[in-house]
């Protein structure tokens, strides 16, 4: 084959993209150095004095960070579980629906919220749950007093998880539905002839048919244990619910960019990045080992 | 599918349909409600009379937006950002995924390149280093900060999706082109790109939605409102809560003071572009996502 001279063209094609990634992904990684410095913006990264691990020590002593880490873990874990189960249930129900037109309509509608931003959906959710909003109007019919839902710290994590499931469950069904179409219809016919009813078919054919997908999604979701969802919480929270709703990412934003404590915010961000990276690597490795999943 | 038409089965079907429709409505009604709120009068909104149909129908909120210069300025910034971002994303995805879809023998170092890409996807320096990098590049208040920072973060996923698609194309295509004396650029532009229309459409639509929806970079890289993209403008105006509002009373007064019909109108216009591209998006994304997966 005449492919000898091709390689240099391949490298040429790769240069612009890697340059882009170098400047905006790799270079910022070196910025983590400031978490080991007394950073002085005037002197820059190269000129600032070293602080060793001081910011990290301070971080572990700070009450704020402990609260923020535990809030993150709680919210993210609840989201992981809910976002694994809800799409699975919905996909199973949709799979049982035989009216194809209705099915397509339902699919079209439930995928939509995934594509809207949390700025938009946050605005809508806050209005729905506002003091004069529809939710309070509805509960008033049953004799409840109006309530400021998003000012209630006890309730906040559940509202966050609930609204996240509402936004994402539809999109999450896609992957299950793809797995469900992979099941051979002849198996259902055979089961039917053997006298298996709906529930037995579900148990013995449908569920085993999507087991691999469910295992894969569960393993991959482990990488999200520290991702409680910045966009969502940033658009829903307020100082009244910081005690249960403030997460690592929102805290880093406020501490770093509003209070200008660059070093501390970077240290906390670094800890999150490192732990997150390890978790994702492990989850990818497990997925590769158990279900032969590969990203490339 | 063969199934009994027993009484029990029919009851199950009816319950199923009702539950499915109920859940589906929960996805679309909040959006519908926002539209009807935006077309109602302020007093009706404040009294909580608006449900799924406008009360005292009027277009005042939209007329007010017509006089809001900043709204239009932000809309235009977002539009520019989407156009630049999608174009750049398209070019880079094409240029990177083709060489990376070659074997490690055809492109020396291919696996090293892939691991670098994966690494940039899984690890990041955090918010503060990113901010300092953009600052050092003198890109604060420039639209390029929005285009390049966001673009770099979504590029890798899009490259992997497209690369996997290229790898699943039959080898005979290359061989036939080589026999005819085609070079790498010819093969890429005349053979690969035309075949990859579904996956490139998916990747471009993802890019449109991402750049339209992203709000955080507008907030941290733009120091003045006049540079805000639309989502950031709305975030600041409608959704965000001033950290100084500390008591429940203040929080309530804040929500009572807000102009709910005007906010609803702004939110509705801001989601309109996504609603418009959604039908196209829906045609491609399910297909595109499964297309990009590694088969074996």
UniProtKB/TrEMBL annotation, chain A:
<feature type="transmembrane region" description="Helical">
    <location>
        <begin position="68"/>
        <end position="93"/>
    </location>
</feature>
<dbReference type="InterPro" id="IPR000515">
    <property type="entry name" value="MetI-like"/>
</dbReference>
<dbReference type="Pfam" id="PF00528">
    <property type="entry name" value="BPD_transp_1"/>
</dbReference>
<keyword id="KW-0472">Membrane</keyword>
<feature type="transmembrane region" description="Helical">
    <location>
        <begin position="209"/>
        <end position="230"/>
    </location>
</feature>
<feature type="transmembrane region" description="Helical">
    <location>
        <begin position="105"/>
        <end position="126"/>
    </location>
</feature>
<feature type="transmembrane region" description="Helical">
    <location>
        <begin position="12"/>
        <end position="39"/>
    </location>
</feature>
<keyword id="KW-1003">Cell membrane</keyword>
<keyword id="KW-0813">Transport</keyword>
<dbReference type="InterPro" id="IPR035906">
    <property type="entry name" value="MetI-like_sf"/>
</dbReference>
<protein>
    <submittedName>
        <fullName>Aldouronate transport system permease protein</fullName>
    </submittedName>
</protein>
<feature type="transmembrane region" description="Helical">
    <location>
        <begin position="169"/>
        <end position="188"/>
    </location>
</feature>
<keyword id="KW-1133">Transmembrane helix</keyword>
<keyword id="KW-0812">Transmembrane</keyword>
<feature type="domain" description="ABC transmembrane type-1">
    <location>
        <begin position="69"/>
        <end position="283"/>
    </location>
</feature>
<dbReference type="InterPro" id="IPR050809">
    <property type="entry name" value="UgpAE/MalFG_permease"/>
</dbReference>
<feature type="transmembrane region" description="Helical">
    <location>
        <begin position="264"/>
        <end position="287"/>
    </location>
</feature>
<comment type="similarity">
    <text>Belongs to the binding-protein-dependent transport system permease family.</text>
</comment>
Automatic annotation (TrEMBL), chain B:
<keyword id="KW-0472">Membrane</keyword>
<keyword id="KW-0762">Sugar transport</keyword>
<feature type="transmembrane region" description="Helical">
    <location>
        <begin position="112"/>
        <end position="131"/>
    </location>
</feature>
<feature type="transmembrane region" description="Helical">
    <location>
        <begin position="12"/>
        <end position="33"/>
    </location>
</feature>
<feature type="transmembrane region" description="Helical">
    <location>
        <begin position="264"/>
        <end position="281"/>
    </location>
</feature>
<keyword id="KW-0812">Transmembrane</keyword>
<feature type="transmembrane region" description="Helical">
    <location>
        <begin position="82"/>
        <end position="100"/>
    </location>
</feature>
<keyword id="KW-1003">Cell membrane</keyword>
<keyword id="KW-0813">Transport</keyword>
<feature type="transmembrane region" description="Helical">
    <location>
        <begin position="143"/>
        <end position="166"/>
    </location>
</feature>
<protein>
    <submittedName>
        <fullName>Multiple sugar transport system permease protein/putative aldouronate transport system permease protein</fullName>
    </submittedName>
</protein>
<dbReference type="InterPro" id="IPR000515">
    <property type="entry name" value="MetI-like"/>
</dbReference>
<comment type="similarity">
    <text>Belongs to the binding-protein-dependent transport system permease family.</text>
</comment>
<dbReference type="InterPro" id="IPR035906">
    <property type="entry name" value="MetI-like_sf"/>
</dbReference>
<keyword id="KW-1133">Transmembrane helix</keyword>
<dbReference type="Pfam" id="PF00528">
    <property type="entry name" value="BPD_transp_1"/>
</dbReference>
<feature type="domain" description="ABC transmembrane type-1">
    <location>
        <begin position="71"/>
        <end position="281"/>
    </location>
</feature>
<feature type="transmembrane region" description="Helical">
    <location>
        <begin position="187"/>
        <end position="212"/>
    </location>
</feature>
């Amino acid at each position: 084959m005449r492919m000898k001279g091709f390689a240099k063209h391949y490298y040429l094609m790769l240069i612009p993209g890697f340059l882009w990634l170098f400047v905006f992904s790799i270079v910022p990684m070196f910025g983590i150095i400031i978490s080991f410095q007394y950073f002085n913006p005037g002197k820059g990264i190269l000129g600032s004095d070293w602080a060793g691990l001081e910011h990290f020590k301070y971080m572990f002593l700070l009450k704020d960070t402990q609260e923020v880490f535990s809030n993150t873990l709680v919210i993210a874990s609840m989201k992981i579980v809910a976002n694994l189960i809800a799409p699975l249930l919905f996909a199973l129900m949709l799979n049982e629906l035989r009216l194809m037109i209705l099915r397509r309509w339902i699919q079209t509608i439930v995928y939509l919220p995934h594509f809207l931003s949390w700025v938009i959906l946050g605005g809508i959710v806050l209005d729905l749950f506002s003091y004069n909003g529809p939710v309070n109007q509805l509960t008033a019919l049953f004799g409840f007093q109006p309530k400021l839902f998003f000012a209630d710290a006890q309730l906040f994590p559940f509202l966050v998880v609930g609204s996240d499931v509402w936004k994402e469950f539809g999109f999450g069904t896609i992957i299950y539905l793809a797995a469900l179409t992979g099941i051979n219809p002849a198996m259902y016919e055979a089961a039917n002839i053997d006298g298996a009813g709906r529930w037995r078919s579900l148990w013995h054919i449908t569920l085993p048919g999507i087991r691999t997908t469910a295992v894969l999604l569960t393993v991959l979701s482990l990488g999200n244990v520290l991702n409680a969802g910045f966009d969502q919480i940033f658009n829903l929270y307020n100082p009244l619910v910081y005690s249960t709703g403030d997460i690592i990412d929102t805290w880093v934003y406020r501490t770093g960019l509003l209070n200008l404590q660059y070093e501390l915010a970077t240290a906390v961000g670094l800890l999150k990045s490192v732990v997150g990276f390890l978790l994702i690597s492990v989850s990818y490795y497990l997925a590769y080992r158990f279900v032969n999943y590969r990203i490339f | 599918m063969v199934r009994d038409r027993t009484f029990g089965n029919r009851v199950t079907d009816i319950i199923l349909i009702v539950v499915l429709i109920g859940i589906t409505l929960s996805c679309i009604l909040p959006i519908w409600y926002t539209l009807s709120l935006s077309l109602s009068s302020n007093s009706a909104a404040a009294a909580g009379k608006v449900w799924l149909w406008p009360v005292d129908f009027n277009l005042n909120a939209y007329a007010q937006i017509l006089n809001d210069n900043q709204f239009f300025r932000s809309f235009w910034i977002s539009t520019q950002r989407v156009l630049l971002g999608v174009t750049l994303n398209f070019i880079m995805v094409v240029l990177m995924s083709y060489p990376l879809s070659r074997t490690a023998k055809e492109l020396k170092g291919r696996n090293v390149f892939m691991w670098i890409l994966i690494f940039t996807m899984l690890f990041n320096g955090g918010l503060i280093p990113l901010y300092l990098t953009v600052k050092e590049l003198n890109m604060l208040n420039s639209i390029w900060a929005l285009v390049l920072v966001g673009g770099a973060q979504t590029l890798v996923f899009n490259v992997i999706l497209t690369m996997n698609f290229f790898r699943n194309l039959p080898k005979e295509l290359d061989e036939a082109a080589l026999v005819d004396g085609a070079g790498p650029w010819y093969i890429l532009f005349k053979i690969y790109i035309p075949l990859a229309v579904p996956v490139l459409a998916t990747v471009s639509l993802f890019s449109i939605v991402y750049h339209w929806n992203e709000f955080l970079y507008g907030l941290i890289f733009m120091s003045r409102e006049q540079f805000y993209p639309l989502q950031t403008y709305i975030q600041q105006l409608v959704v965000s809560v001033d950290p100084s509002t500390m008591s429940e009373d203040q929080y309530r007064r804040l929500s009572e003071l807000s102009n709910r019909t005007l906010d609803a109108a702004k939110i509705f216009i801001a989601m309109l572009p996504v609603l418009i591209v959604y039908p196209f998006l829906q045609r491609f994304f399910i297909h595109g996502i499964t297309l990009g997966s590694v088969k074996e």
